């Protein structure tokens, strides 16, 4: 699971030692991965966390494979250089293009996301499930593997939905806005009409849209996201190598952005009310 290769010589020297007391890193294209951070803090309350938002390049959904891979590798490597003992790529789009290349390139454990289609397949009563995600995620091999392994053998139909304006809306703090509800009504009404009863939120920004979805559609959809599964997988990976933080005190969170902290802070504070001061990170290509 963890690649044993090295990065370029400029990144391979003077790295901080990685022991149980070192932080977990979380990388996302923006602030959506804070939903995963919330699950990690619940499952692993004593772990310190460094969160890196690549706000200078968000959203990733319209970028090509080479661009997404380069940005993801650079971001994860920056967290590696800060001494993180494990990194979670909390971005479905980044995982669709970059998970395996990053694991092969860097010498640290990397946990990725797959849309939570498997539990949705087992929960649906109508036999119809929808996945709301970016086009890259919807067309990626990770999702197709779950469709092939779980949905098709169980006779479950999977409807793929995307709306490129949703991620920027969440980034701007508009997850509960009238605009969000209007977009969700537009994109999800066909799923409702098709008999979908289980909706997979296949982007880490989208759990923040759950209240708006429920306000617009009531209990028509059971919602699924990957946050809890990723948090538990992270705990299992750390337990397997005796790398859980032994401290009994609450873990500390640090938030960094490749963009302008002043522009990112309002969105972070809305989604994470107890967030610390957002700091700037200079992330160099690998």
TrEMBL record:
Molecular-function annotations in GO: glutamate racemase activity
Recorded metabolic or biological pathway in which this protein acts: Cell wall biogenesis; peptidoglycan biosynthesis
One Pfam family per UniProt: Asp_Glu_race
Keywords of this entry: Cell shape, Cell wall biogenesis/degradation, Isomerase, Peptidoglycan synthesis
Catalytic EC class: isomerase
Residues forming the catalytic site: 91, 203
Binding site for substrate: 28-29, 60-61, 92-93, 204-205
Protein known as: Glutamate racemase
Annotated gene: murI
GO biological process terms on file: cell wall organization; peptidoglycan biosynthetic process; regulation of cell shape
Catalytic activity: L-glutamate = D-glutamate
Superkingdom in the source lineage: Bacteria
The family this protein is said to belong to: Belongs to the aspartate/glutamate racemases family.
EC number(s) recorded for this UniProt protein: 5.1.1.3
Function text: Provides the (R)-glutamate required for cell wall biosynthesis.
């Amino acid at each position: 699971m963890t690649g044993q290769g090295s990065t370029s010589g400029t990144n391979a020297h003077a790295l901080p030692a990685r022991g149980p007391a070192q932080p977990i890193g979380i990388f996302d294209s923006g602030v959506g991965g804070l939903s995963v951070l919330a699950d990690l803090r619940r499952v692993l309350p004593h772990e310190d966390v460094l969160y890196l938002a690549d706000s200078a390049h968000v959203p990733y959904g319209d970028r090509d494979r080479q661009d997404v891979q380069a940005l993801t590798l650079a971001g994860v490597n920056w967290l590696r250089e800060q001494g993180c003992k494990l990194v979670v790529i909390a971005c479905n789009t980044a995982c669709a293009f970059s998970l395996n290349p990053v694991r092969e390139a860097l010498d640290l454990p990397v946990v990725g996301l797959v849309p939570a289609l498997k539990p949705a397949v087992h929960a649906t009563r109508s036999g119809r499930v929808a996945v709301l995600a970016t086009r890259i995620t919807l067309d990626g091999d990770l999702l197709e593997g779950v469709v092939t392994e779980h949905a098709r053998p169980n006779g479950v139909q999977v409807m793929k939905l995307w709306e490129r304006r949703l991620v920027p809306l969440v980034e701007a703090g508009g997850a509960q806005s009238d605009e969000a509800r209007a977009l969700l009504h537009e994109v999800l009404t066909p799923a409702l009409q098709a008999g979908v009863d289980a909706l997979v939120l296949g982007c880490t920004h989208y759990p923040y849209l759950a209240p708006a979805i429920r306000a617009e559609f009531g209990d028509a959809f059971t919602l699924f996201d990957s946050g809890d599964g990723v948090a538990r997988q992270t705990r299992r990976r750390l337990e397997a190598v005796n790398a859980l933080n032994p401290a009994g005190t609450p873990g500390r969170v640090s938030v960094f952005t490749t963009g302008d902290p002043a522009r990112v802070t309002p969105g972070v504070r809305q989604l994470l009310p107890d967030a610390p001061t957002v700091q700037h990170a200079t992330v160099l290509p690998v």
